[in-house]
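Reminder to self: tokens first, then the designed residues, so the page reads top to bottom the way the pipeline ran.
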């Protein structure tokens, strides 16, 4: 029988006592390509933005000859694989005083763990990925953790090919076959990440129907549903309810993209990642611990994550220091280039700098403190805790 437990470090300071290891699941590095499609979607939702967006797009075409392409453009998080690994491990070892294991899951890419496995301090990091899985009118994200190192690259090629495959060429049973193969690998852990987040904006009702269809067909190959460290209390409460409906475990997944370490981790008595997988898959045990940052107002945390994405870091390795070195767009030939190579005057246009300045001001000093108070969601937190504890 599945058994999940959920605890909160700010309510239970000794929650990690008796456990050997903390496990950080689902976080991102600068190897992860994050879509900019949301920009065009925002302009559709907020009509006031549409004339501004159209003006900026016309100006871009006139000045550079480049037609804005939000679907192909992407940004990368600021932390290198080494910095991300150290951040996650350090939080566990310093705050919880137990061993830390880290599984980095960039979008459809395993370069971060493959690079880290060449370094002595991180040679045992699992080969993991956040796989984009097209399903019906949407797509889901699955955390595929601990792929065999010898076949990790071959697996990544297969996963990427499925993601890119046109609908008409996708065999009905191909996804089932691939998940069954992954499930047959005893050291692999398959997690349904943020299952109730309508990331591709098909509408909540339709999204929920597709989630249940996915679990009805493929749930036997899913080992746990994620409680996501960057989603709000209400959504995580509903994810826990969904897990109960399908007799699934819940598991942590911080989904860190910025500088704040994962807002939840798993506690385990395992001493290796493979042992942890066995605990989840065979013993059906999962102990989720929410860290103190999750108790902060959700909108405030999203703002802080956004500020990290548009921040400049002079001490970081070259290529990760400036925000516009980490945002990519096709040039006139269709080749992906950092924005620093595309600006007509060598720097962001004035209107872009002004917009970034407004966002940065929201995160500064008194303004940030005022917004944090305005966004206080302690009532929602208490309601969610009551539901999750039930």
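Designed residues (390 positions):
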């Amino acid at each position: 029988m599945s058994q999940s437990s959920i605890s909160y470090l700010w309510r239970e300071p000794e929650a990690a006592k008796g456990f050997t290891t903390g496990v950080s699941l689902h976080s991102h590095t600068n190897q992860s390509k994050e879509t900019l499609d949301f920009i065009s979607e925002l302009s559709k939702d907020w009509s006031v933005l549409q004339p501004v967006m159209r003006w900026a797009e016309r100006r871009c075409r006139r000045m550079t000859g480049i037609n804005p392409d939000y679907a192909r453009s992407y940004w990368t998080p600021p932390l290198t694989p080494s910095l991300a690994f150290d951040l996650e491990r350090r939080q566990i070892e310093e705050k919880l005083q137990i061993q830390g294991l880290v599984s980095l899951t960039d979008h459809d890419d395993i370069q971060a763990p493959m690079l880290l496995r060449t370094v002595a301090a991180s040679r045992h990091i699992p080969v993991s990925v956040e796989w984009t899985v097209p399903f019906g009118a949407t797509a889901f994200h699955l955390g595929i953790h601990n792929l065999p190192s010898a076949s990790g690259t071959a697996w990544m090629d297969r996963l990427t090919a499925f993601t890119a495959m046109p609908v008409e060429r996708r065999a009905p049973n191909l996804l089932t076959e691939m998940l069954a193969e992954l499930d047959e690998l005893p050291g692999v852990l398959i997690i349904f990440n943020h299952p109730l987040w309508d990331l591709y904006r098909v509408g909540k009702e339709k999204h929920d129907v597709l989630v249940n269809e996915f679990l009805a067909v493929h749930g036997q190959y899913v080992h746990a549903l994620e409680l996501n460290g960057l989603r709000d209390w209400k959504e995580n409460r509903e994810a826990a309810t969904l897990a109960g409906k399908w007799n699934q475990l819940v598991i942590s997944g911080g989904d860190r993209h910025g500088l704040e370490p994962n807002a939840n981790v798993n506690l385990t008595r395992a001493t290796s990642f493979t042992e942890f997988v066995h605990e989840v898959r065979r013993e059906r045990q999962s102990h989720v611990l929410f860290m103190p940052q999750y108790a902060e107002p959700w909108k405030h945390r999203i703002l802080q994550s956004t500020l990290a994405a548009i921040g400049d870091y002079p001490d970081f390795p070259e290529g990760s220091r400036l925000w516009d070195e980490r945002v990519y767009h096709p040039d006139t030939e269709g080749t992906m280039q950092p924005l620093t190579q595309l600006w007509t005057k060598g720097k962001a246009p004035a209107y872009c700098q002004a917009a970034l300045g407004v966002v940065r001001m929201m995160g500064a000093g008194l303004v940030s403190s005022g917004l944090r108070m305005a966004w206080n969601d302690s009532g929602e937190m208490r309601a969610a805790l009551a539901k999750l504890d039930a």
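The first helix runs from residue 37 to 45.
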